[in-house]
Amino acid sequence: MDQPVPMSDHPSAARPLRDRMTVPALAFGGMLMAVMQTVVVPLLPDLPRLTGASPGAVSWMVTATLLSGAVLTPVLGRAGDMYGKRRVLIAALGVMVLGSVMCALSSDIGVLITARALQGAASAVVPLSISILRDELPPERTGSAVALMSATVGIGASLGLPLAALVVQYYDWHVMFWVTAGLGAAGVAAVWWAVRESPVREPGRFDLVGALGLAVGLVCLLLGIVEGGEWGWGGARVLGLFVGAVAVLGLWWWQQLRTRQPLVDLRLVARPRVGLSHVAALLTGFAFYSNTLVTAQLVQAPEATGYGLGLSIAETGLVLLPGGLAMLLFSPVSARVSAAFGPRVTLVVGTSVIALGYVVRIADSRELWMIIVGAAVVSVGTTLAYSALPMLILRAVPPGQTASANGVNVLMRTIGQAMCSAAVVAVLVRHTSPVDGAPVPTLHGYLLAFAMAGVVALLACTAALTIPRDPVAGDTRRTRGRTPGTRDGVMEGA
Fold it and tell me: How far apart are the C-alpha atoms of 379 and 373, rounded to whole Å?
């Protein structure tokens, strides 16, 4: 298997500007991915009128991106490990741009949903970028770069909401997609110019059967979770989707264990340091998502409720913005903690801080400044946790499988977020009171949602504590071949 080549050995070592721009170019791509996922949110209330479609059909502009992203993230991660991470990364960003152009040119709901499904390919940007950083950067820079890359998810989401709200408020809604298409094209150009193709590959035949099986299983699972509240959790459609998911994913698991070159190396997943990291990712994704989801609804609630602030979408985005800035500021802190004590400790601290943030949210969710503080504390904890998860994966898998392994980790976060969305909706629907003749969630319902997320954060902390310790805390050296303290290119104890 090819091994990472030191930067000084590359022909491009004489081009320091491109070397310096590698991390910013990849981080820009990560923020674009998050922006693309959030820009449609301010449009949702008006899209039925603008497109002539039903609210249920319009909701698929979010659901389609979620489903395609969940399916394509591990698939494109595996393709990156096999065919070249830079190549697949540029392709993913290009498909994202194509989706934006389609949205900008059409008002037909079918075209819009298809375009949003194409944009789901951008979900693979972060795991592919993290794998490139491992291959290309010297060890002393990898931790901080990975932490920044992980933080781009929150930073981009915090920037995307107010940006989209302002564009929608003052311009035709198609302009928003032209803006994202332009930004996406700039991201493609930046990656093409600043990022070299990684020499680390794991050649072989792509597991098409495994990819199709995973796609069908994940679509059944996530569609049941996302639509369960609307269709009824005990209804035939939802139960049928869950039964189908169990059956298909069970067959997929059996097929993966018997394939010479599987899409996902399940034997690697079975290792405690990998499998428990995936469990922690699912729980952390659940705990993190409640912060954004509930805060946005809470501050927009009518003042007549006694707790709501009646803020607009744009004002809501500004409330969430300090959390995004906190993620940017604390990403280097998380890297230093991981370098000093290991990513396992960083994950434990991060999930604990998330739980603390929800304690603040429960203590006071009426005053605007306390809402901003509580949301920012959760964001800081998310930064610590999200930066630690890919580092745990990088230390536990061979260089040729970093993109696919991190793709699975991101997939687990996505499933956690989908589960959180369904759980929050279920809680809020059960705790409503009439305001001006319309049912509105009560403050008690919001506090229960915060408490639920806080408990899940503590469960994530427990999962983190069960992850085996690093052989040498703070050792971020990459292994090359068979060296002392390693086994098959993976640290002993992985």
Answer: 10
In this prediction, residue 487 carries a pLDDT of: 37
Band (pLDDT 50/70/90 cuts) for residue 485 is very low
| DSSP helix, strand, coil percent of the chain (3-state; round to 5) | 80, 0, 20
Place of tokens 């067959």: 251
Q: DSSP assignment, residue 489?
A: T
Task: List, in sequence order, every residue forming a beta bridge with 438; answer none if it has no partner.
Answer: 435
| Single-letter amino acid, residue 84 | G
As a whole number of angstroms, the distance between CA 79 and CA 401 comes to: 10
Closest CA relative to residue 199, chosen from 264, 131, 124, 263? 131
Q: What is the pLDDT of residues 405-436, one digit of tens each?
A: 888 998 899 899 889 988 888 898 888 888 87
Is the Cβ–Cβ distance between 159 and 395 less than 8 Å? no
pTM of the model: 0.83
Half-sphere exposure of 303 (CA within 13 A, CB side): 6
pLDDT at 489: 40
Note the pLDDT of residue 470.
63
Q: Which has the closest alpha carbon to 142: 340, 339, 346, 382?
A: 339
Q: What is the pLDDT of residues 98-109, one digit of tens each?
A: 999 999 999 999
In the numeric block, the tokens 């098959």 are attached to 488
**DSSP label at 486?**
E
Q: Which of 275, 266, 265, 285 is nearest to 466 (CA)?
A: 275
Is 142:109 a contact under the CB 8 Å cutoff? no
Which residue stretches of 84-124 are H helix? 85-105, 109-119
Phi/psi of residue 475, each to 5°?
-80, 110
Angle, in degrees to the nearest 10, between helices 313-341 and 272-300: 150
75: pLDDT confidence band, cut at 50, 70 and 90? very high
- How far is 110 from 133, CA to CA, in rounded Å? 38
State how far the Cα of 307 lies from the Cα of 298, in Å rounded to an integer.
8
CB 285 within 8 A of CB 222: no
